[in-house]
């Protein structure tokens, strides 16, 4: 089944989720993997600026909340170009590190619009405490995988390093005999406070995030106690290989149409997206028929054209 046309808005945040190929544990806690993710995200953000509210990596999937900087065509396109560059950089570096080939992510990202600040905040805390929910750790502060918790809940300034291979090639590459380590650069990932927490002072905001995480951690802990499934130990986590994967098949879940704090908002969005898709289909049909000046709905992307040579 094909993907629905993307509807990009400047005043909306998007909760995005994407899994690894075969659900492999490619993002297992590892200082090198953590640095790769942070550096790749920061480099992609530098090339294609977007607002990043959170960026969380479970053992085999990514969850993030991003938004466009403005309503300009360039900033809306950056929502797509950021993820494209981010994932390309991650794949290249992880493949080099693990001596593997091929894709890192299995399927297209599941992008779901958050219709209000409350739904975005709910997605934020769900993503941040996801490793705790899955029983990988007892507290998110103990999670050694990539997380924005340290930056957003503790106020820690984290930097990442990468090798600027472009600069190395421009300097002559192998012929120059200059070591790659001479081209190491440091970069920082920029987060933006959630709109619902933006008016708080940094210390207050960080304390609020820690309190909410503790509340969820307590609920997850109580659930594990009821089911008799303790959190994974550090020793057991260390024994996992990056190429391992879960023994049980994943339950297929339907992608939500949107995230909303009220049913009324969700119903209104359902009507709006239906109108958008209808307008898009009409414009797309005209455009593909040769009406190049056809106007598409605001926030949409024109379909690609294919040139076929007649033999």
Structure characterization notes:
By secondary structure, the chain is an alpha+beta fold. It has two domains: 13-247 and 255-261, Transposase IS200-like (Alpha-Beta Plaits), CATH 3.30.70.1290; 263-304. Helices cover 41% and strands 12% of the residues. The protein is built from nine helices and six strands. The strands form two sheets. A four-stranded antiparallel sheet has the order 2-3-1-4, with helices on one face. A hairpin with a 3-residue loop joins strand 2 and strand 3. The longest helix is centred in the N-terminal third of the chain and has 26 residues, at 73-98. The mean pLDDT is 92.
Give me some keywords for this one.
two-stranded antiparallel ribbon; alpha+beta; 2 domains; Alpha-Beta Plaits; 311 residues
Low-pLDDT parts are none
> What name does CATH use for the topology of the largest domain?
Alpha-Beta Plaits
Major sheet: order of its strands? 2-3-1-4
Report, as a whole number of angstroms, the end-to-end distance.
31 Å
Q: Give the ordered list of helices and strands.
A: EHEEHEHHHEHEHHH
Class by alpha and beta content: alpha+beta
CATH class of the largest domain: Alpha Beta
Number of strands: 6
- Specify the CATH architecture of the largest domain: 2-Layer Sandwich
Roughly what percent helix? 40-55%
How many H/I helices? 9
Instruction: Estimate the mean pLDDT confidence.
Output: 92
Largest sheet: 4 strands, antiparallel
* CATH homology group of the largest domain: Transposase IS200-like
How much β-strand is present in the residues? 5-15%
- Number of structural units classed as domains: 2
The whole-angstrom Rg is 21 Å
Give the overall shape: globular
